C-alpha cells in the first residue's frame, strides 16, 4: 500500500500534475475577484461602448466573489480533474503496468485506495490553493469573511470533489479510458449545468453540495446535512464498487 | 487605466508564464508527444493558460 502510494506520488511528480493543477486553481481563483474589480476599466477599454454610456455596477459582497470563484472551479477545474482521473486505472491496464502489479501479492483494495488517496490529496491541495488565492484577492479588494465559514466552504467543496474522483476512478476501473472519460464528463461538468438549469425542483442533489457549503458564508442551508449524507453514502458505495471492479478486471487478465 | 495596480496583476502573469515555461521544458525533454512537437510548442506559446493545460492533459504520451 505504502509502495503503491509512493508510485502514485512519483507519477504525479513526473507528470508535473502536482504543480500545474494547483496553479490552474490559483489562476481560476484570482480571475473572478480581479475581473469584477476592474470591470469598469475593462468595459471602458475594450467594451466598445457608445459615448455617455453608463452602467451601474452591482455592489458585490466578499461572499459573492467566493461563490463566483466556486463557479469557476465547478466548470473548468472540474473538467480538468475528471479528465486526468478518468485514465488512472484504465491506462495502467492498457500499457501493461497493471499486469505487473497483478502478479504481486497486493490486494484490490490497495490498488484502488492508493489511487483514491493520491487524488484526494491532490484535490485537497488544489482546493486550498484555489480558495486561498480567491480569498486573498477578495480580502485585498473587497473585504474578509468569517474564518470558520471559509474553512467549512473548503471542506464541503473537497467532500464534493472526493465524490467526483471516487466515482471517476471507479469508472476507470470498469471501462476503458475513453468511455470512462465520456461518462464522467457527462455526469459531472454537464450534470452541474443541468442541475443549475432545472435543479430548482429538488433540494437534495449531490451537485448542490458545494453551493450549500458556500451557504455558510450567508445563511446556512437547511438541506446541507441531508445532501452531505447522500454524497458520503455515494462515495462509499462507488469506492466498494471500484474495489470490486478492480478485482473483476484482475481476474479476467491473462498472465 | 492609470490606476491599474500592477502588484495585483503580476501574479496572474507570473503563473501563466510559469505554466508556459513548464510545458515548454517538458516538450523539450519528453521522448515523443501525441502529434508533432512543433504544433504543441505553438499551442503552448500562443494560447495562454489553456494551451499548457491542454498539453499536460492530452499532449503527453504516457508510456
From TrEMBL, chain A:
Pfam families: ABC2_membrane_2
Stretches that traverse the bilayer: 65-86, 116-137, 149-175, 182-203, 223-245
Gene Ontology molecular function terms on file: ABC-type transporter activity
Superkingdom to which the source organism belongs: Bacteria
Record keywords, A-Z: Membrane, Transmembrane, Transmembrane helix
GO cellular component: plasma membrane
PANTHER family assigned: INTEGRAL MEMBRANE PROTEIN-RELATED, MEMBRANE PROTEIN
Official protein name in the record: ABC transporter permease
From TrEMBL, chain B:
Transmembrane segments: 6-27, 39-58
One Gene Ontology cellular component annotation held by this UniProt entry: plasma membrane
Membrane topology: Multi-pass membrane protein
Keyword annotations of the record: Cell membrane, Membrane, Transmembrane, Transmembrane helix
Subcellular location: Cell membrane
Signal peptide (from-to): none
Cardiolipin synthase N-terminal domain residues: 18-60
Superkingdom to which the source organism belongs: Bacteria
A Pfam family the protein falls into: PLDc_N
Protein name: Negative regulatory protein YxlE
Lineage of producing organism: Bacteria, Bacillati, Bacillota, Bacilli, Bacillales
Amino acid at each position: 500500500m505504502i509502495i503503491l502510494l509512493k508510485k502514485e506520488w512519483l507519477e504525479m511528480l513526473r507528470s508535473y500534475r502536482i504543480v500545474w493543477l494547483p496553479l490552474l486553481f490559483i489562476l481560476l481563483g484570482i480571475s473572478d475577484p480581479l475581473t469584477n474589480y476592474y470591470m469598469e476599466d475593462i468595459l471602458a477599454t475594450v467594451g466598445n461602448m457608445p459615448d455617455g454610456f453608463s452602467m451601474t455596477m452591482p455592489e458585490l459582497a466578499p461572499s459573492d466573489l467566493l461563490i463566483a470563484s466556486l463557479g469557476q472551479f465547478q466548470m473548468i477545474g472540474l473538467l480538468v480533474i475528471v479528465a486526468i482521473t478518468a485514465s488512472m486505472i484504465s491506462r495502467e491496464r492498457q500499457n501493461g503496468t497493471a499486469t505487473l502489479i497483478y502478479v504481486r501479492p497486493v490486494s484490490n483494495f490497495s490498488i484502488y485506495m492508493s489511487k483514491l488517496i493520491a487524488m484526494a490529496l491532490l484535490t485537497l491541495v488544489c482546493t486550498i490553493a484555489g480558495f486561498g488565492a480567491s480569498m486573498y484577492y477578495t480580502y485585498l479588494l473587497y473585504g474578509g469573511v468569517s474564518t470558520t465559514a471559509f474553512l467549512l466552504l473548503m471542506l464541503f467543496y473537497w467532500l464534493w470533489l472526493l465524490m467526483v474522483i471516487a466515482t471517476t476512478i471507479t469508472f476507470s476501473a470498469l471501462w476503458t479510458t475513453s468511455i470512462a472519460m465520456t461518462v464522467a464528463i457527462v455526469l459531472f461538468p454537464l450534470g452541474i449545468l443541468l442541475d443549475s438549469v432545472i435543479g430548482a425542483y429538488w433540494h437534495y442533489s449531490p451537485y448542490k453540495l458545494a453551493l450549500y457549503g458556500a451557504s455558510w458564508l450567508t445563511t446556512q442551508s437547511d438541506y446541507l446535512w441531508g445532501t452531505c449524507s447522500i454524497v458520503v453514502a455515494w462515495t462509499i458505495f462507488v469506492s466498494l464498487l471500484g474495489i470490486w471492479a478492480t478485482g473483476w478486471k484482475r481476474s479476467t487478465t491473462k498472465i | 487605466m492609470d490606476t491599474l495596480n500592477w502588484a495585483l496583476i503580476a501574479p496572474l502573469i507570473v503563473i501563466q508564464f510559469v505554466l508556459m515555461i513548464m510545458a515548454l521544458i517538458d516538450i523539450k525533454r519528453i521522448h515523443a508527444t501525441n502529434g508533432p512537437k512543433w504544433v504543441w510548442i505553438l499551442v503552448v506559446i500562443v494560447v495562454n493558460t489553456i494551451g499548457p493545460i491542454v498539453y499536460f492533459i492530452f499532449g503527453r504520451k504516457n508510456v
